[in-house]
Design goal:
Its EC number is 2.1.2.11. This protein is of the alpha/beta class and 294 residues long. Helices cover 37% and strands 12% of the residues. The structure holds 5,10-methenyl-6,7,8-trihydrofolic acid, 3-methyl-2-oxobutanoic acid and magnesium ion.
């Protein structure tokens, strides 16, 4: 195979995020993001962005915009399939989305989120599901929710050569146990969170998401870890920041979580386009002669 693989042995090339290739022109071949690049960004104190993506066009745009890591989140449950929680989404539903995203990217590292029930049963199940996302989804890494209790699962997966991203703090797959969308790690629970992060690192995780964690706790954990932390509602001192793209771009309407900043009004743009199309069809203004064949 001549195609370089993500997460393989490091090249002597300039690290991702430095030099002119950091913002490669659309269509430029660019360099694939590797896990060691993310570690180097942490060492240099350069925060990096991560976004969810669930399809080809968004993946292509985010890749070209220089987002080094794309997550095919189990949040597709809410943001693609319309479930009210992330619990019902299945491997069978997520796999085709992962395939679409990995086909579209040139540089970004694509992380497949393991859905509820597809890894918790045993390290063997976690590895088997990860292998499906790597082989059938062509993902570059997987992500799973949970702390120290999932260290054996992370070890089984990384032991097979598959990079794993952890996820601690508010873990949506456990929302019924956590009592809803609530900040995690306040007070004494902060020490447990640190222990969880260290256990994931020791098990071989290459990064760890911290969701809805007090900023001071996230800062402390980020300082204690060698691997990058990726915050969502975890303050400014994480090594990276992630948002769900429909929140970031204003496609999802209604009240967004407090940790969201909206960078666009995609809902407004799409809604105006659909309304204009509908009006023109109803008025007989579309199609015009140039849209028709003689
Ligand atoms: N569109 C979307 N964005 C997300 O961030 C997201 C998903 N979907 N689906 C899966 C999980 C669920 N997540 C969520 C969902 C809601 C809140 C929320 O409503 N938070 C409130 C209450 C916080 C509190 O009471 O402490 C907030 O104002 O932040 C937070 C995280 C994060 N993930
Ligand atoms: C919010 C991110 C971290 C996530 O797990 C998802 O989108 O599923
Ligand atoms: Mg998720």
């Amino acid at each position: 195979m001549s195609t370089p693989q993500h997460g393989g042995p490091g090249e002597a090339a300039a690290p991702y995020g430095s030099g002119p290739s950091a913002q490669a022109a659309p269509g430029a071949p660019g360099k694939k993001v590797r896990i060691h690049h993310l570690r180097e960004l942490k060492e240099r104190g350069e925060p990096w962005p991560m976004l969810t993506a669930y399809d080809m066009y968004t993946a292509e745009l985010f890749d070209e915009a220089g987002i080094p890591v794309l997550l095919v989140g189990d949040s597709a449950a809410n943001n693609v399939f319309g479930y009210d929680t992330s619990l019902p989404v299945t491997v069978e539903e997520l796999l085709p989305l992962v395939r679409g995203v990995t086909r579209a990217v040139r540089r970004a590292l694509v992380v497949a989120d393991l859905p509820f029930g597809s890894y918790q049963l045993s390290p063997e199940q976690a590895l088997a599901t990860s292998v499906r996302f790597m082989k059938e989804g062509r993902a570059h890494a997987v992500k799973l929710e949970g702390g120290s209790r999932f260290a054996p699962h992370v070890e089984a997966i990384t032991g097979a050569g598959v990079p794993v991203m952890g996820h601690i703090g508010f873990t949506p797959q456990s929302e019924h146990n956590l009592g809803g969308y609530r900040v995690q790690g306040r007070g004494a629970a902060g020490e447990e969170l640190l222990a969880d992060a260290l256990a994931l690192q020791a098990a071989g995780a290459f990064a760890v998401v911290m969701e809805m964690v007090p900023a001071e706790v996230a800062k402390r954990i980020t300082g204690e870890l060698r691997i990058p932390t990726v915050g969502i509602g975890a303050g400014p001192d994480c090594d990276a920041q992630v948002l769900v793209w429909q929140d970031m771009a204003g496609l999802r309407r209604g009240r967004a979580p407090r940790f969201v900043r909206r960078y666009a009004d995609v809902a407004g743009v799409l809604s105006a386009a659909a309304t204009a199309f509908a009006d023109e069809v109803r008025r007989g203004e579309f199609p015009a002669p140039e849209h028709a064949f003689q």
